Structures are given as structure tokens and as C-alpha cells.
Amino acid sequence: MQTIRVEDAVGTVLCHDLTKIVPGKTKGPAFKKGQVITEKDIPELLNMGKSHIYVWEVKKDQVHEDDAAIRLSRALGGQGISFTEPKEGKVSLIADFNGMCTINEDLLVQVNMIEDMVVATRSNRRPVIKGDIIAGIRVVPLVIDENKLQMVEHLSKEQETIRVKPFHSLKVGIITTGSEVYSGRIEDKFGPVVKEKIESYGCEVFKQIIVPDDVEQISAAIHSLKAEGAELILTTGGMSVDPDDVTPRSVREAGAEIVTYGAPVLPGAMLMVAYLEDVTILGLPGCVMYHKTTIFDLMIPLVLVGERIDKAMVAKLGLGGLCLNCKVCSYPVCTFGTGA
Ligand SMILES: Nc1nc2c(c(=O)[nH]1)N[C@H]1C(S)=C(S)[C@@H](COP(=O)(O)OP(=O)(O)OC[C@H]3O[C@@H](n4cnc5c(N)ncnc54)[C@H](O)[C@@H]3O)O[C@H]1N2
Ligand code: MOO
């Protein structure tokens, strides 16, 4: 901290707020801590009775918090991210389009291990919409060492830490299994739930096929949807342990590569993920029809950004994989399936 004459203060950084009072009119900070004094501020400071002020001496190897916050956000923010103006050393990162919030967790930890900076993000792999705040980046002191910024810039040279992966609008086919639905004994309630949810992400359901619990017919339906150009096939029902639950067997017999049958998520334990060449198949258990938020919600962002799901990705969902059935569901702003 240094005391200098106001006339010599241009380009220096204020150490504290300066309060202006006009009786009967205003009282509040006319100048903010951390503010860089410009030429036009000098008369105003003199009018406020300040002939000397305390300033930070910004040394050659130090950077002002606002400039530093800009540099950090440019280093850490990648695809699909815009930046707000810095304010008190903080920049917010905003989603440019609808997609999946994608955080490089290892890099995030490495950056947050460096002193004097804070990077706080949303949970990883969550759906976000255009305009959502994805992260806040703050420099803690008024000035920060240049070498700390360079460390971050070096770490993020080849990898993006924070980005939004865009959703692709996929062509979706639904196969509704269940002899009770096929025969007309009960009305199909599963198809509409699944259709509404996947279409809310911008996909198009081009066809729904209703079949009985029959391996040959379910397999044939998978092949016919694929032949018609389906990029994502959703099967409903028949996923459990009864003798009539033949959907997993049908997916296997259709020749698909099975990634998992079962997921450590409740509701959603009986999920199947499979690939028939480049077509994703999700076998959705009965709970997806009944519960508002399930394993289906956790899978959708991954599928729509084109990530190939593997067994380890599914296994990781166990931590936080228990839906708490809150009275008012706030998904995706909750811990469900976040690994927390
Ligand atoms: N012993 C065990 N039993 C169950 C397990 C388990 O691990 N061990 N898992 C449970 C879980 S978790 C779920 S979820 C369900 C899975 O159910 P399914 O996918 O096999 O569903 P279905 O048996 O086909 O049907 C259940 C129920 O829902 C009705 N349904 C199905 N499709 C439709 C439709 N399109 N429209 C209207 N209603 C539909 C169906 O008639 C049944 O009443 O299994 C647990 N059991
Ligand atoms: O697959 Mo069931 O999913 O947990 O209710």
C-alpha cells in the first residue's frame, strides 16, 4: 500500500472504497476498491476532498484482478462459452447454446490448487440451456502474480477445462414392448412419456412400433427402425426378471453390442445400453414411465452430444445415483447422478 497525490494516481489501483455523500441525495461508494484510476476521475476525487489516496503498487510481474480474471476465463473457457465483463475480479461463463456442461475435472482441481484464484462450476455432464451461467471465475486479491496466470495458461494449452458440447437433434424410434399393450388390454402410457421427454431436447420421434413380449418381433423392430434411419432407439418395458421380460435378450439377439444391463441408479436399475453399429439403443425399464427423473435423464445428454457410453461411465453414476424423491423435483439442479 502506498499514499500518493491524487494528481499522480492515474493507472493505479485503489485500496478501498471511497464514499461520496451529497446531503439529502446520495451516500455510497463513488469509487470501488480495486478500481483503476483514470484521468477523468481526478476532478471527481478532488471534488470529494481527496488530495491523497491509498493505492496498490502494481509491480511489473503483477496483474490487476479484472485483467487477471479475463485472462483466466479465456484460458479455461472453451467451446460454447461467452464471458461477462469482469466485476470485482469476477467473470461469469455463459452457455452460448443448449447442450451438456462439460468440465475437465482433473484440470479444474489443478487450477483450484493454485493460490489466489477460484473456479466454481456447475456439475459435470448436466444439460444446460443457452444463457445459463456455467461457471464463475474469481481472482481473490486485488493483484495477482503473473506467473500464477501463466501456470493456468500453460495447463490449459491443449485441453479445454469448461465448455458446452452442443446437442445433436437425433432421429429417434421407439419400440414399446408388452403383450398387454399390444393386445389393447391396456392403453400405452410409456411411449408418450418417452416421446415428450426426448423431443423436449430437440429430437424427432419419427416412429413408434408396439410389439408383444416376443424376441423375434422385438429384434425385427430394432432392425426395421435402423433401416429407416434411426440414430437412437428407445425400447420400453420388459426389462426385469419375469419370464415375459425378454427385451434385453431381444436386443442381444438383434446383434447389438451390450455395454451394460443394469445401472447403479435408483430409479433406473434395469437400464440397458447397447450399440448396433452406430445406433444407440437404450432399454428403458418401467420406472421411466412412472418417475419424473430417472436414469433416462442422465443418459440423454451423453447420447445427444455423441459420447460413446462405456461401463465405467455408468458405474460412476452410483455415487449420487439415489434419487431423493424431493417433493418438488429440481433436476438438473440437484445431486442426482452427479458423483457427489
Ligand atoms: N425381482 C425383481 N423384480 C424387479 C426388479 C428386480 O431387480 N428384481 N426390478 C424392478 C425394477 S427396478 C423395475 S423398473 C421394474 C422393471 O419393469 P419392466 O421394465 O420389466 O416393466 P414391465 O414388467 O414391462 O412392466 C411393469 C408394469 O408397467 C406396465 N407397463 C409397461 N409398459 C407399459 C406401457 N407401454 N403402457 C402402460 N403400462 C405399461 C406393465 O403393464 C406393468 O404393470 O421391475 C421391477 N421388478
Ligand atoms: O429400473 Mo427400476 O429402475 O430402478 O425402478
TrEMBL record:
* Gene Ontology MF terms: metal ion binding; molybdopterin molybdotransferase activity
Q: Name one Pfam family in it.
A: MoCF_biosynth
Cofactor (UniProt): Mg(2+)
Q: What InterPro entries does the entry give?
A: MoaB/Mog-like_dom_sf (IPR036425), MoaB/Mog_dom (IPR001453), MoeA-like (IPR038987)
Which pathway does it operate in? Answer: Cofactor biosynthesis; molybdopterin biosynthesis
The reply on keyword Iron-sulfur is no
List the GO biological process terms: Mo-molybdopterin cofactor biosynthetic process
Boundaries of every MoaB/Mog domain copy:
173-305
Q: What is its EC number?
A: 2.10.1.1
Superkingdom of origin: Bacteria
One GO cellular component term: cytosol
Q: Which EC class is this protein assigned? A: transferase
Keyword vocabulary terms for this entry: Magnesium, Metal-binding, Molybdenum, Molybdenum cofactor biosynthesis, Transferase
What reaction does this enzyme carry out catalytically?
A: adenylyl-molybdopterin + molybdate = Mo-molybdopterin + AMP + H(+)
Recorded family membership: Belongs to the MoeA family.
Instruction: Quote the function comment for this protein.
Output: Catalyzes the insertion of molybdate into adenylated molybdopterin with the concomitant release of AMP.
Q: What is the name attached to this protein's record? A: Molybdopterin molybdenumtransferase
Taxonomy, top ranks, is: Bacteria, Bacillati, Bacillota, Clostridia, Eubacteriales
